[in-house]
Structures are given as structure tokens and as C-alpha cells.
């Protein structure tokens, strides 16, 4: 999740990646504010199209459902940063790679996991809404199995643990599993080239999503080990690594021309057409990498980005984005809970809940900054110390 890179032999920090991360986490935050306030996050389908016979308050905020794109953005940016960091590292051995990933991701995750595991009774599972009713079956208090699966980042393989404790954690399990198969990705690239590897992964991901679409439309239950495995997102993540490789070698990325407009337009069509629903993540990743590819090409031609106040604000949010992602969702669930208590036990209007969630961004962001400063940074420093002092360099 670090934004660093070099091009043409000259170091150039890719500041715009922090800004993109800032935009992504704000989009996710607003989407979760919507689901927290209304109890659901998507319009229901009526046949192949959305049913717009919904309350006006929700329809007014419905565009915020595009906030789910923030996860696809994170995956693409992750692929970019992981590949750049690994290729530019003076130590390219896999023990060093996995040590860096461990200290960057796991200690902050573990602390948040333990904290929310002990306080999960505050955040009832049914707060996710009816569209995730299977979460409620897991109970309102995290049981030992939920904690164990989360400790080993395997919660994505079971419907009863997928969104338990902290709903946002499932993406971290998938992303860490993508780190594990990153060596396999590089092996395929070495044997097939980037272009052929991406075609292979695109066929794999799209086939899986087509199978899921068929199953959903025929009332066949899709197991989590299939629909939430890293292979279900492999192509989307690898797009970022491919864009990074083109940047590192001074090549323009192939998807960075007219494709940005095409895939962004396809996202609009996707919103209204149910058969494309399962391909939303892939389309979002393609749109993201097309736009980021344009920025990478521009960075190669003329390094440096503008540092206006808005850019600096997004830099700050992007810098704390991992901590904000770890902490924000369970804390948001407190908002309607507290609003109901202040309203003498009566549920507050969803719009009021949403406004309070937006206001809560300030203190949650401040908390995330403290978490970044006192948890993330020491963990990163510990990783550097461990690699320098305890991990022997690979021979050769």
C-alpha cells in the first residue's frame, strides 16, 4: 500500500497514488455511511433492471453505491505499489518480500481485529441490513471460530465469517492471499509475457464471474470458496502490477488511451443491467487502471504533481487510508445506535443518520491518523529492523 516508484532510473515518488487512495477510502466511507443509515446498499432488481420504486431519500443518495468502486481502486493501486516496491528493492528474495508485507499489514490488522472482537456486541450483525441477513445467523458476538478464521485471514471462505467482526476485513484476507500468489504471477509473466498472462487471468476471472451470474439467476448457491477466493480477483489485481511494470520500463500502458472513457461508460450501463452485475468489480478495475495508466504515462514524461491544498488534503487521507479502512465501519455502526438513544429509543430518520455519519468522518479520521502514527509506522519500522538485522540476504 506504499506509493513509491522510480522511472527511467530516476527516483520519483508517485504522490498521486496517495491522492487516489484518499479518494477511494472516502468513496468506501460514504457507501458504508449509506448502508449504515438505510440498512441496505443497493437498489433491488426487478427482472434485468433496477426497481426504482424506492423512498426518495434513498434515491437521492443512490449514486453513492458507486463507492464500492473504492475496493477495486485499492486492489489496482495495491498491485501497482507491490510490483514497484518489489522490483526496485535491493533485496528481491521472497522472505524479504513477505516480511515487508507482514509488518506492513498484519500488526495493525491484528490490533484492530482483537479490539473489535471484544467489543462486537455493540455492533449487531443485522446492522448490515437484510441483504446480508446470513451474517445475522453468525450471532451478534464474535465466536471463537470467527476469531480464528480472521487471525489466519481465511474469513473469506465461509459465509458466516465473511462479514463478521468487521465487514471490511474480508478484502484484506483476499489481498493477502493475492500477495501469496504474486510469485506465481511473476512466474507466468516470465513464461508467457505480461500480455498473455493478463489474457489468461482475464479468461479465468470472467469465467468464474459468468458461472456466478448463471448460478444467481438460477437460484443456485455460490460457495464462498469460489466467489471470494483470490483467483476471483486475480486479473483485477494483476492489472495494477502490469501497469507498474510498463511504468518501470518506460512503456505506455496499453489500456490508458480511449479505454478510460469506454470502461467508465460501461460502469454506468452496468449499474442498470443485472446480467453485468457480477462483472462490476472487473469493470471498475479496468476503468481504474486505465485512468491510473494515463497518470503513470504522464509521470514518465514529466515527473512531479501539483501540490495544491486539495491535493494535500487527499494526500493526508490517502496516507491514513489503511488505518481508516481498518477502523471506520464498526465505528459507523455506533452512529444510528447513538442517534436512537438520543431520540428516546425511536429510530432516527435515515437522512439524519447519514448526515451524522458524514460528520463522524472528522473524529474517525483523527483516530485513524493516531492509529497510523502510533501503530502503522512503528510496525513498518519494526519490519525494516527485522529485515536488516534478522533476515539473512539470499545468496546469489
Q: What does the overall shape look like?
A: globular
Rg, Å, rounded: 21 Å
Sequence stretches where pLDDT stays below 50 over 5 or more residues: 1-11, 121-142
Report mean pLDDT, rounded to a whole number: 86
Please write out the topology.
Blueprint: E1 6-7, E2 10-11, H1 15-38, E3 45-46, E4 49-50, H2 56-61, H3 69-88, H4 94-119, H5 133-136, H6 144-151, H7 169-180, H8 182-192, H9 194-217, H10 224-227, H11 234-248, H12 259-272, H13 280-301, H14 309-319, H15 321-342, H16 350-389
Antiparallel strand pairs: 1-2, 3-4
Helix pairs in contact: 1-3, 1-14, 1-15, 1-16, 3-11, 3-13, 4-7, 4-15, 4-16, 8-9, 9-11, 11-13, 12-13, 15-16
Protein architecture, described:
With 396 residues, the protein is mainly α. It has one domain (6-389). It is built from 16 helices and four strands. The strands form two sheets. A two-stranded antiparallel sheet has the order 1-2. It has a two-stranded antiparallel sheet with strand order 3-4. Helix 1 (15-38) crosses helix 14 (309-319), helix 4 runs parallel beside helix 15 (321-342) and helix 15 packs antiparallel against helix 16. The longest helix is centred in the C-terminal third of the chain and has 40 residues, at 350-389.
Please supply descriptive tags for the structure shown above:
2% strand; mainly alpha; 4 strands; two-stranded antiparallel ribbon; 16 helices; 66% helix; two-stranded antiparallel sheet; 396 residues
State the gist of this model.
The chain has 396 residues and is mostly helical.
